[in-house]
Amino acid sequence: MRDCGAQHTDFAAKDQTGTELSIPFAPPSDALDLNPASPFWRRDHHAGRRPRLLARSRALSALRRRFEGEGFVEVEPAALQVSPGNETHLHGFATSLIGPDGRSHVAYLHTSPEFSMKKLLAAGEQRIASLGHVWRNRERTATHHPEFTMLEWYRPGAGMGSGQAGLAA
Fold first, then answer.
1. C-alpha 134: how far from its chain's center?
2. Interior CA angle at 143 toward 141 and 144, to 5°?
3. DSSP 144
4. Which residues, 6 or more positions from 145, have their beta carbon under 8 angstroms from its beta carbon?
5. Secondary structure of the chain: what % helix, strand, coil (to 5)?
6. Would 23 disulfide with which of 11, 84, 119, 142, CB 3.0-4.6 Å?
7. What is the pLDDT of residue 137?
């Protein structure tokens, strides 16, 4: 996730080379506020947010159509993982997973779909994309939210320029 000035980064994307890209999106100011002064479920409050909701929906649909048109398979890696990842600068949210035997095990919300997607590449997938929620702890600021939507895609054998050119088109 990158700082986009006064805007919040709701979309973070990684191309097949691992380069992280950002698409700015302004969030509601009371996001994650457990007692908002003006709850989002009130019609008068929601009316001002609806145009952003519709624009976001159109953007997500357009991204999915674009990747489908280029022969990508959309994958949805599991959000709950046994490890938060090995990146020292990323911190996962821990939770307790209760097994059928009643024993508790630590599990983490994933900070990126990368590891799961790379296992699919190792299994032979050629064009995969993931557009879904990820969670990063310790990233709450005026411009960063701990839960955000990430677009990540892989095309083995394609050069770095092809991913950047695809974004520009």
1. 4
2. 65
3. -
4. 8, 10, 27, 31, 32, 139
5. 25, 25, 45
6. 11
7. 92
Residues 41, 45, 50, 51, Cα dihedral to 10° = -160
Between CA 120 and CA 44 the distance in angstroms is: 45
- Per residue in 80-107, pLDDT (tens digit) is 999 887 788 889 999 999 999 999 999 9
Total number of residues shown for the chain: 169
pLDDT for 58 equals 96
Q: Domains of the chain by range and CATH?
A: 9-168 (3.30.930.10)
Cα 72 to chain centroid distance, Å, stands at: 17
**In the block, which residue shows the tokens 């590891």?**
115
CB within 8 Å of 8: residues ≥ 6 apart? 24, 25, 26, 27, 142, 143, 144, 145
State the pLDDT at residue 5: 34
pLDDT of residue 47: 87
Low-confidence ranges of the chain (pLDDT < 50): 1-10, 24, 26
pLDDT of residue 3: 33
